[in-house]
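FYI - complex with zinc ion, inputs then prediction.
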Amino acid sequence: MRKPPRSAVRRPFASLAVLDGALRARGARPTRQRRAIFSALSERLDHPTAEALYRGVRRRVPGLSLATVYTTLEVLVEAGLAGRFIGADGVAHYDARTDAHDHRRCLGCGRIDDLDRHGQNERIPMQPSADFQPMGYRIEVTGYCAGCLEAAGARREPGPTGPDPIHQGETR
Ligand SMILES: [Zn+2]
Ligand SMILES: [Zn+2]
């Protein structure tokens, strides 16, 4: 998997002191493993699943189990230090960024990035009506990342040898 590019947007994330307090408030000791999971999530911009985060952090943290990653992520979400959302892929993804924002998802490799809305939020109809009270919205733009487009282009170079990956798959 490609390393996620650094975003120009500075991600707000809590300090380790805030993390330790939140863990203690929930009866969880601030262990080195839990801190490492939090730090790893804070560094990532690709909204990993618990498994993906586990794969990334286990090299640094000997003896880490996937179960510890899951329980720590749950505490982080409960404490408001991380966001969790179910992507259109049906899988739970975790996000160190907790402010309201939208995402874009690559249909090729599945990576999810933050979406820059360029101030177009006013287009979302959020006015209450007689038959609906809007409470929020979620937007996930789907498409193909530069890496997948490049890979598809390279595969096509000698001539078409199979289905075109760019024009296959989901349409939503
Ligand atoms: Zn991709
Ligand atoms: Zn995000």
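The pocket of zinc ion (ligand 1) is lined by residues 106, 108-109, 111, 144-145, 147-148 (CB under 6 Å). Residues 1-11, 159-163, 167-172 have pLDDT under 50 and may be disordered.
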